[in-house]
Amino acid sequence: MSVLEVVLRSVAVLAAFLVFPLLVGQAEHKLMAHMQGRLGPMYAGGFHGWAQLVADGVKFAQKEDITPRAADRWIFRIAPFVALVPYLVAMGALPLQAGVVGIDVPASAVLVLAATSVGALGTLMAGWASANKYALLGALRSAAQLVSYELPLVLAVASACLAAGTLSLSGVVEAWSPWWLLWQAPGALVFLVAALAELQRPPFDMPIADAELVMGPWTEYTGLRFAFFLLAEYAGIVVFSLLFAVLYLGGWRGPFDDSLGWLWTLLKGFLVAVLVIWFRVAWPRMREDQLQRLAWLRLLPLALIQLALTGIGVVMTS
Amino acid sequence: MTSLDLAFAACGALAVVAGLLAVSTRQVVHAALWLVVALLGVAGCLLVLGHELVALVLVLVYVGAIVVLVLFALMLTRAPIGPDLVHAVPAWRRVLAGLAGAATTALLLAALLPLADGAVQRREISNKAVATELFGTWVWPFEALSVLLLAALIAALAVSRGAGAGVDTSSDRLLARLGHVDPAEGRSDVSQTGKKSKDGSGEEAR
């Protein structure tokens, strides 16, 4: 791989990383506005409030960057980047089409999981370093939640990889067949719920519950650093949605997939992202004990059953 | 000196420096975060040598789960911002610890240095090869290890629940600390604010 190719690929991944989360953010504004009859996001710029996102961006850039005096200065300042950068790495390993991928590594499924698990550290660092009890409580809740939901998430991905016989995401799509929609359905459900919890999106937003903890670990953040946390959240939605599309919905498989494959992947991923947004509008927040109960008593056994089911299927058909 | 040598040396130096900082810093949370950097350095070394799967699993398990758990435990108990003076140890103990560390390093170096032939060689090890070794040749040690971990987990549960395990289990206390409604108190109470104060006082009384 020449230097030029490396640069081009990196720029392409960076561009995708900057564009897709904004698209999801825009979609969330408009979908929530329609579903909940909110008028606010529909004014700025005239037609359908298209300029709302731009206005938000300008607002974030204008705000003063404040570091509280009692905070642990360095950790407070680098936390947003620790939350953001792992998703950039994960984005680089997600394939859109056969050959259309930032970098094709043999164990890309593990790479994406490892990268997203590092992102959780950013939230913990932010919550602790803020020297604020609400932020610390939020970080505690988020650590408890992330540790619990990591296990079902990894097991669900392991099941899909086991079914495909490879750890490469491109390989999973190659091995995918429509039967998987039935065969891997429990795993897909576990993945969707666990991914939602990893993203700390409603109904799993106990760590940033705004009615109790102001904004959880992000309480003390202002301006661009706060915007980076938001960007990390939306990049997370993009990464997990695309991962879901690639693992369970067949990625670029569809009509004309030789030329339009990337469009299929993006379309499927976007549908999952819409579902994630819909969940936020549709369900109230879960309590901490309900969260833990769901992870350990429902999702984990379901994931194990799926793993056994996959094992039986693989042995029977091979 | 090839670029592989350079990459290996950089990752190794990162791991060593971060490891030293992790044991020498006076701030517990900083120590945990330096541990993350050290682990990433080790993962980088493994990547340079071509052991992709091992490196990724190291990051996934140690950084993603174990360090998060460590940070959780630190924050739940006592993690002040700034140097932790409560747990300061006298100088002679620090010297002894340094000597023990140096002795271990010397022992490892004496054992490992004769094996190294200078050049960093990259050996592409496929994921399948790792799986075949792990679940073929080494399957019994692997299973024995998991049984050991399971036994430790169950023992920890038994210890934490204690002898008089009533309603007040440690998990309930933990959840109460996280700000959730205590299951021991009635759930029918609608008033959120009243509930919280009641919970708090109940926690103190116990």
UniProtKB/TrEMBL annotation, chain A:
It holds the Pfam family NADHdh. Coiled coil: none annotated. Its EC number is 7.1.1.-. One of its GO terms (cellular component) is plasma membrane. It catalyses: a quinone + NADH + 5 H(+)(in) = a quinol + NAD(+) + 4 H(+)(out). Its main location: membrane. It is a multi-pass membrane protein. It is an enzyme of class 7 (translocase). It is found in: Cell membrane; Membrane. It comes from the Bacteria. Belongs to the complex I subunit 1 family. This is NADH-quinone oxidoreductase subunit H. It comes from Knoellia subterranea KCTC 19937. The gene is nuoH.
Automatic annotation (TrEMBL), chain B:
GO terms for cellular component: plasma membrane. One of its GO terms (molecular function) is quinone binding. It is a multi-pass membrane protein. Residues 180-206 are annotated as: Disordered. It is found in: Cell membrane. Gene3D superfamilies: NADH-ubiquinone/plastoquinone oxidoreductase chain 6, subunit NuoJ (1.20.120.1200). Residues 196-206 have a biased composition (Basic and acidic residues). Keywords: Cell membrane, Membrane, NAD, Quinone, Transmembrane, Transmembrane helix. It is an enzyme of class 7 (translocase). It holds the Pfam family Oxidored_q3. InterPro entries: NADH_UbQ/plastoQ_OxRdtase_su6, Nuo/plastoQ_OxRdtase_6_NuoJ. The chain crosses the membrane at residues 32-49, 56-76, 96-116, 137-159. It catalyses: a quinone + NADH + 5 H(+)(in) = a quinol + NAD(+) + 4 H(+)(out). Its EC number is 7.1.1.-. It comes from the Bacteria. NDH-1 shuttles electrons from NADH, via FMN and iron-sulfur (Fe-S) centers, to quinones in the respiratory chain. Couples the redox reaction to proton translocation (for every two electrons transferred, four hydrogen ions are translocated across the cytoplasmic membrane), and thus conserves the redox energy in a proton gradient. Belongs to the complex I subunit 6 family. PANTHER family: NADH-UBIQUINONE OXIDOREDUCTASE CHAIN 6. This is NADH-quinone oxidoreductase subunit J. It comes from Knoellia subterranea KCTC 19937.
